Amino acid sequence: MLLGLLSVLFLLPLIVTFTNSFMGEIEIALNYSGKLSLFDLAEGISSAFIKLKLIPAEATLKQYKSVLISDPTFLVLLSNSIKLTVPVVIGNIIVSALASYGFILWKFKYKEIIFYIYITIMLMPMQAVLVPNFIAAGKLGIQESYLAIILPGVFSPFGTFLLRQNMKSIPKSYLESAEIDGASHMSVFINIVLPQMKSGIAALAMLTFIEYWNIVEQAIIFIKDYTKEPLSVYLSRIAEGRISIIFAASCVYMAIPLWTLVFGREDLERGIEMSGVK
Amino acid sequence: MKKFLFTALLLLTALSLAACSAGTAQGSSRQAGSAESAREEGFTLEGEVNGEINISCYDFTYESLLNEAAEKFESKYPGTTVNVNLFSTPPEIKTMEKDGMKMAIITTEADPQAESDYIFKSGNDIMSGQGADIYAIDVLPYYKYVQGGYLEDLSKYMDADTDFNTSDYKSNILNAVKYEGGQYIMPLSYSFDILTYDPEILETAAEDIFNGKEAMSLAQVLELTTGFADEYNVAREEPVKLINYGKENLFSTLFKNNYKSFVDIENKSCDFNSGSFTDLLNMVTAYADNGYISDSVFGMMKKGGGEAGSGAPEMPDFEDVQRRLSTAYMLGLQGNQSLFNMLNKDAEVTRMFMSSSSASAENHEIGALSANDFGDVEADVFNMFGMNSNSKNKRTAWEFIKFLLSDEMQSSLNIISLPVNNNARAENMKLEVVEELFVPVEEREAKELTPEQQAILDEYAGYIEDYSNQINAVTLTDSKIMSIVTEETNLFFTGEKSAEEAASSIQSKVSLYLNE
Amino acid sequence: MSDYFIKLKARSAGLGFLLPSLLGISIFFIWPFASTIKYALYDKPIGGSFAGLNNFVELMGNPAYRLGLKNTLIFMAFSIPLNMALALSSALVLKNSAHRKLFTLIFLVPMVIPSGSTAFFWQKMFAKNGFLNGLLYSIGLSRINWLDSEYAMAVIVIIFAWKNIGYNMILFLSGLASIPKEHYESAHVDGAGRLRVFLHITMPGLAPTFVIIFIMNVINSFKVFKEVYLLTGSHPNESIYLLQHFMNNMFNSLNYPRLGAASILVAAVAGIAAIIFVKMERQV
Questions:
Q1: Which residue from A263, B44, B340, C91 has the highest number of Cβ atoms inside 10 Å of its Cβ?
Q2: Is pTM beyond 0.95 here?
Q3: Strand segments (E) across B114-262
Q4: Nearest to B312 among A130, A237, A241 (CB)
């Protein structure tokens, strides 16, 4: 029951965004401006409260029409987001999976130190590394392209960290038996290790996707042409005058990661079922 | 083998790090070295005027000015390319129509997020050594940039360039924007304010109030006029108000006049708790309660009507606006553009500029020059530009800035109010007299002035120059501090916070800001 | 001798797997980290002179920094245990629930909503004339200034929890999933009760996950800045002025040396804490 209550709370913003996307502009302004009219004053009401309206008085698809059809900019921005996010997810999974296996294989006294370095790097706040990142991108000549955002994402240590932790639960016996059989490391990796890591990889994919789908600051810095910016940047600026469109745009924006989550969650699910946790 | 691999990797990383840091350190020491040697040996202008420069600005209103300048500059100096980069988007223009009359209202939705994105991006560019060559100082934090050494001191260029004569420009304006003796920004034009009064209402009382002083502060004048206003309005049905300001705007103006007593930028301290701040708030409220000032214009939303749909700031009713424009007010605070009209009320000249406060202010007479509470006459400056200290093409950048100050550019229609260039200013005044100020350059007829017009021009120029000479300050208020103050005081005016609460809230936020 | 080469091959292979990651990290992370250290040791980012530890000393004495530090620590002290407890209990409850799929999706929703929409929503909830205050008013209570008073801390804890429980849940679920079936089966065979299973199989199995969740929570508690910033601007009420506000403002005023010093301190402290955690995990 507690869960049920929590869920409602969790979903509230989503519900509001969703239902409000069907409202007309005027209705939204009336409800959300919370300003007083002269009539209110006359009646002695000293302040108006914002009402959260869940059901539009007049449902209209006008907002969606603006977003999807009349103003093609949104779809361009949306595709930019996709072009940015998908390579990061795929690249990061590959690099991190390889690296996490490498951490297990590599017998080296100081490898733990390298691991600690990985962790510490993750903790640097974004503002601090932004300028050096910018300079580095300049030196590599990738400043103007998406690569400047994609490459740091692909090599982000979080993936390695997560998958390595995940791997710690794989019993060593699996690995050793394969080695004894004389299989090459790569085939051990592909045939034995990867399937075990499915749930971890699914988790990584989902989290990375969400993180880069919502990226804002790096996009502002690296992308100069505003037709190339991802939708997340556009939606981070809510000018009061464009509220109505924002709702519809947000719904379209959210649909994609939600869709991905559905898939990712399935893999997670299977992982849980396979592990027999009861 | 493995050890070798590892050590190799480590060495490689270390080497590249060392190289990078050595490179940058060298670069930085080279710069420091050259700056010092420049100061020691006497700075000279080197290099040619060619190549590319980038200008970055946020405010869209700069667009036509910069594009015009870029075009003219490029044709004057072939081989140069000037790139103008604007960040913001133009506002929407809404029109209202009634009884055949059209009124256009331009709503600038100040997008604070876009503004802070611009500051964020510019900061990043500058720190990574990649910024534009010239920056328009419209929203950027000027003091912080100067303190960090990111803006070039233009005075050394001004001295070294034989082509540049400080006497050609209104130097007290240029000096007024100096910071710790350095000319880090160059303003293109300026304006000042005059306190005015309605002679039909005040009649002889004006003498007592203004008492022959050249410059007074708004606060002083208001105080002196309240006594008169009480008497005057005793028997009236519709009391005449002192001045056409709502609470918020009046407070804002009075606050800016007294800014230095509250904020000390150089010492990074502020004092809002001393009581004078709350006194100011209470004084403004008292004025409002006693009916001395007008209602705030954009306070109320009319139910069901108007352009309420978009959620943008509500527009007032048509009749409302008309009514406001025709009401008479005792006093006014007007910009220098009204000066011409006030001096020549009887003459047969076309009014170029409408009064800024109300149509009725057309009748006003000059009272005194507007000063701040410290007795300094302040000017507003427009279109300020600074040069990036890390610009790769400083010679051309300086030439461009100089070009913006030239006779040619300063007479452009894109310059706001009074140009700092003396010749351009004199020319503009003459054009205003012959009513050709807004006529495009090609269509102007080089008219000779009639003796009558000459007399008008002499008087006008006399006033403008005389007043301009008294300008000795430009208080560049920090926009962050102003926004904090405005936000909190608005809460006070809507009754949500008491004066003390607002003051202490401002104190904690502003001192936090100054401490950073 | 060939034995040596075989072992060598094994070790090099490991390195080989690790190589792309190491290279990428050196370029995109270690180099910027080193740059930041360099900035922190100079008094100006470009053309400055060596300042040694001056920046650090100055930083410690800066009242804005101290305020940010204090508030961030308070924030983390409340949020992290709260989030982990809520996420873990939800994950455990959910693994038995029939509606697992649905609920997991629900908890993930907050992470997907764009920052603009969430800021808008929370603003309308917590503003002075917002929805919550409207509720309070209608039952006769006085309004609370949620965003500009001591309550503000509670507000951001709530918002952070809302946003991040999903994140933690995914990690917990993945961690639960990686505990091998056999452990549970053997426990079952031994006739262990649910509590014993939980304490001796699930918790130890989750130890690596705990480590990562803790560290990620620390990192994410920095990221909460984005929502707080959209709600209350760059200089909010004293009680929610976080380290991130300080650093963001440093960035905008181009005060790189101070920013660098603050970041290094943060990374150093957090890094040490993380390492301690990892060491602890070893012993479980």
A1: C91
A2: no
A3: 134-136, 189-191, 193-197, 215-217, 241-243
A4: A241
